[in-house]
Amino acid sequence: MTQKDITFVADFLTEHFNEAPELYNRKGKYFNVERVGQYLKDEDDDLVSPPNTEGNRWFNFLKNSTHLKESPLLFPYYPEKSLHFVKRQMEEIIDQCLQKPADVIGKSVNQAVCMSLYKTSQSEDSTPQLFKLPFLWNDKTSNIHYVLFTMLESSVSKIYILRRHTDTSRSVNNGLIAVEFGSFLNSSINDSSDSRCYSCLDAHFYDDETITVVLKESVEQEGKERILAQLPLS
Questions:
Q1: pLDDT by residue (tens digit) across 148-185?
Q2: Cα–Cα distance between 23 and 29 in angstroms, integer?
Q3: pLDDT band at 17 (very low <50, low <70, confident <90, very high)
Q4: How many degrees, rounded to 5, is the angle at CA 28 between CA 27 and CA 29?
Q5: Range with lowest mean pLDDT among 26-30, 57-61, 102-106, 123-127
Q6: CA 117, CA 131: separation in Å to the nearest integer?
Q7: Which backbone phi and psi does 178 adopt, to 5 degrees?
Q8: Helix, strand, or coil (residue 20)
Q9: What φ, ψ does residue 33 adopt, rounded to 5°?
């Protein structure tokens, strides 16, 4: 250690660990604790060295404001408590704020339709993931809600489009359709007549009328082709 380091430590001990006779009747340390560490202790006891708020502009502003002084919108300040105490207080208030909406929303949710997408075996073996790439889109103009997804293994070259009216009492035509990516894409790539099969890496709605998809060749070979395609919903 350099002399500068030793001086720094000595100054630290002198400043923060002087004897404090006024604390002798309290349990625990009889010295002033380091002023940052006291805020991080997970205890409900008051801080040994609370901050000095004299001259703080924010506190002065609140004291002089008739409307803000008792405002329920301001989180109460606990100058004698640690950050752990304040954190628990804030979590309790947030939980109270979220409980009512959770109850209301939970009671309002109901099943609009049930579709069987695939069946799995009844064995106790772990079921493989067959559902992938869910992407949601809400067309506010026509009040239609869309879900894009793919089904692994059985139909890797297809992308499924599920659509429902936001008004659950109404139905839409072609509620579930599948789009298959096959050899029709070859003419836009090269003149080869080879049959190619593509699987969907990703798919998102570009706008209310267009879907953007990223495709790849399904054959196992180096230099697989990647295609960025835009499909009109029509």
A1: 988 876 566 788 899 999 888 888 887 888 888 876 55
A2: 8
A3: low
A4: 130
A5: 26-30
A6: 9
A7: -125, 140
A8: coil
A9: -75, 165
